[in-house]
């Protein structure tokens, strides 16, 4: 008879009508068996041949339409069992979510559950369905069944409320599980683990497989296992029809609200859209995958939320907003029309400015001696922006003011140095040649390293080997050893790699090193004085490097990567050595070598209205930086 209709309404009004429909008057203890599976897998056919000797108690049909809708029930007088036939999964149901919930209600009151499948190989959807059903049973139905148990005065431990699961697998062209040496139940446990499901709610799980070479299907093994479970009361005790009906009615009334009909997409957007998520609000980027390779920025229409750690605010002009325009305002040290030095003077006197491309200067932070109002209250609107991984978000403050001052001072010193360096280097080389030993090659004749043929640039230092007198680069003359045969005494001095590997004559060295007068007033005395002064100056220069680095780092804008974290060029990946200069792109804030950041562009979004250094990647971006 029809127990629950397609609208998920119970078709019997009370327990007496339920008993009369089943035809089980006088029975005080019954068990419930239900069957699940995909539509068209022969669930009704299996019940008819397992319990009713092939009689069509449950309707079967050759039609493409499902012949079982809702839940049908029948009573097996031989085994004293209520048999429930359910609607198949993956069918053309009006609301699959409500149908799945109905199946879980049936599973919750069942003592034995059969999952029928005719797939040649077990599908993942079976393990997923059973695992999710187990989790839902423990999470939602356990306490409700406890309440129903207390209401009906049923002395059954809570741990035994879970049904026994029988997976009935019929194949035609493939072997069933357990044909190999491995046990079928062990394979099932492993498959459940592989899909991330652990069916703890079922009191037992058993696999029954049969391979049908020719019809009819052999149900003898299934029938035998069912009889064993029906006869076994150690785990599941039989219950009266009144208790069964009350439990079903209780669950059906408890979980009966309407569910939204959602159809899962076979190809969701997550398969094809960018995987990046906003660090502030967690919303996903709506662009396609790898859109950054096409110089397309991340976008998301979802409104972001503010977090102080990211300071993801930005300003827009309030007057332009009222005119229907969206003009972003960046706090800057000076206006676009001011020169660097004039802008720094005005910044020191009147503070930072807010400049609109349409309205001009709309705010100065220290325009008046007192009573300066917050710009958010007067001239700008605050809006929020998404923070994407890898972005260097600049805080809402003129953070490049200190850097502008350093850049101006450096430009002045570099200009003076550029004009004075050639003459000073020429004078230094001339003095060094005058006091150099006779066997040294003059600096003017040294154009390339004698060892590696490296061509010297105009500002590169040339080193002399104290043993052979040749000119070398720093890498090829980094070793030191005593050269007494040349009058340098027993103190280690700079030598080239070739001379370092040679061993000088001991007797000659002792003879040359014996005269204190020659060491003090000999031909090497002038060079020793020059090297002593040069060493002292270089030591002082190294000592000045550290305070300069501290000042430079303190003046670093917030979106710049600290110098200490820059180990190689962000573009060409060339590793920085000790003497290599690290340059910051004013747009992205990353560190680059000089070759990869020679271009100049204005970067209004960062407060740089005059052409400043940008990397080769940012200079190719279209539009305003």
Automatic annotation (TrEMBL):
<dbReference type="InterPro" id="IPR027417">
    <property type="entry name" value="P-loop_NTPase"/>
</dbReference>
<dbReference type="InterPro" id="IPR000306">
    <property type="entry name" value="Znf_FYVE"/>
</dbReference>
<dbReference type="GO" id="GO:0140042">
    <property type="term" value="P:lipid droplet formation"/>
</dbReference>
<dbReference type="GO" id="GO:0032266">
    <property type="term" value="F:phosphatidylinositol-3-phosphate binding"/>
</dbReference>
<dbReference type="GO" id="GO:0005547">
    <property type="term" value="F:phosphatidylinositol-3,4,5-trisphosphate binding"/>
</dbReference>
<dbReference type="GO" id="GO:0043325">
    <property type="term" value="F:phosphatidylinositol-3,4-bisphosphate binding"/>
</dbReference>
<feature type="domain" description="FYVE-type">
    <location>
        <begin position="563"/>
        <end position="623"/>
    </location>
</feature>
<keyword id="KW-0479">Metal-binding</keyword>
<protein>
    <recommendedName>
        <fullName>FYVE-type domain-containing protein</fullName>
    </recommendedName>
</protein>
<keyword id="KW-0863">Zinc-finger</keyword>
<dbReference type="GO" id="GO:0005811">
    <property type="term" value="C:lipid droplet"/>
</dbReference>
<dbReference type="InterPro" id="IPR042427">
    <property type="entry name" value="ZFYV1"/>
</dbReference>
<dbReference type="InterPro" id="IPR017455">
    <property type="entry name" value="Znf_FYVE-rel"/>
</dbReference>
<dbReference type="GO" id="GO:0005545">
    <property type="term" value="F:1-phosphatidylinositol binding"/>
</dbReference>
<keyword id="KW-0862">Zinc</keyword>
<dbReference type="Pfam" id="PF01363">
    <property type="entry name" value="FYVE"/>
</dbReference>
<feature type="domain" description="FYVE-type">
    <location>
        <begin position="443"/>
        <end position="504"/>
    </location>
</feature>
<dbReference type="InterPro" id="IPR013083">
    <property type="entry name" value="Znf_RING/FYVE/PHD"/>
</dbReference>
<dbReference type="GO" id="GO:0008270">
    <property type="term" value="F:zinc ion binding"/>
</dbReference>
<dbReference type="InterPro" id="IPR011011">
    <property type="entry name" value="Znf_FYVE_PHD"/>
</dbReference>
